[in-house]
Amino acid sequence: MRSKQLIAAGSVMALCSMQALAAEIGANLYGDLRYSVGYSDVEDGADDFDFNSNNSHLGLSIGGAEGDLRVTAVYELGIDSGNTTSGSDDTRQAYLSVGSPYGTLAYGQLETTYKQAGQRLDPFYNTGVGTITGTPFGNAGAPVLGPSFGLSALTSDTVDQGLIANQVTYLSPTIANLTGNATIIFAENDRDNGGQTDFGVGVEYAANGILLGAQYLDIRATLNGTPNANFNAGLPDRTKATRVYGGYGTENWTLGASWEPLEIDGAPDRDYYFLSGTLRLNDSTRLAASLGYVENVPFEGQSLSLGVFHELLTGLEAYAAARYSDRDEEAILNNGFAISDGASVGELVLGINYQFSLAGLF
Prior knowledge:
Blueprint: H1 2-19, E1 23-42, E2 48-53, E3 57-66, E4 69-78, E5 91-100, E6 103-111, H2 113-119, E7 131-132, E8 144-145, E9 163-171, E10 178-185, E11 198-207, E12 210-219, E13 239-249, E14 253-264, E15 270-280, E16 285-295, E17 301-313, E18 316-327, H3 329-334, E19 344-359
Antiparallel strand pairs: 1-2, 1-3, 1-19, 3-4, 4-5, 5-6, 6-9, 7-8, 9-10, 10-11, 11-12, 12-13, 13-14, 14-15, 15-16, 16-17, 17-18, 18-19
């Protein structure tokens, strides 16, 4: 129901806005198709082969511009069953944005800037090793589909985690290499939920290959205790989440880092640490690595991922990757969580990604 309401409202708003624009109206049909096959060697558990769609999706963007004003309506559809924490909603994004020299304002169901900040650092995002679910992470409070180990579920490429409804988000123009953002996320039946409106704010510096930023989310209710809350993300109660991140990149290599301390009411604070790097061997091939460590979560421990990506054609790439995860069994038990199978797992993955864009449809 939430997505249908968003689509209907967005369509009416988009049509009214487009009628006010006299020129430069266009559409873009785009897609991101991601599939992989993987083998898992689990300590004290059954080995496993899996074929997965890694958050594959299709989208349509319709935009119009007049002078410095641009209006864009976006609808994006997940084409695999892992799009949401409940598996019942295929709508990933449905929103309307208005851009001007004074910044961009968006309303609807869309990515949080908190999610985007982590996603950009992860070379394995939405790949066969870019997920925190399945056998090695069976105790996770919610499937974390998209980000590598070391990034929280708030970075997930799924609805109720990194794709959130009822957002009003503002992105400022860039001044002196600084860009700010602010978000209000309204809860459905807000009065019944006790006024559980969520907030977000952030700032980012980007210049000469240097990236520095901080993002903050005040999540006042989660699905664990409030049926109509905006966030799930495996969080048991109100959470104050912070991401401090940075990176440096050249034409041939990149480095990135993220630290996420999460303060959770009535539960131990959680910490997520993430490091990543890429090295371009030639125009078609790059190497990637990431290292993650997490504390006070059901799958506490560390994980190392290595991979090679090769571009076959424009938009089409194949990759081979490996991940070794070693959970801290003693810490998990001390935090009151159970251990399923063994504490460690090794994974080998082969995958293919295809991205396309058909701009200028009309």
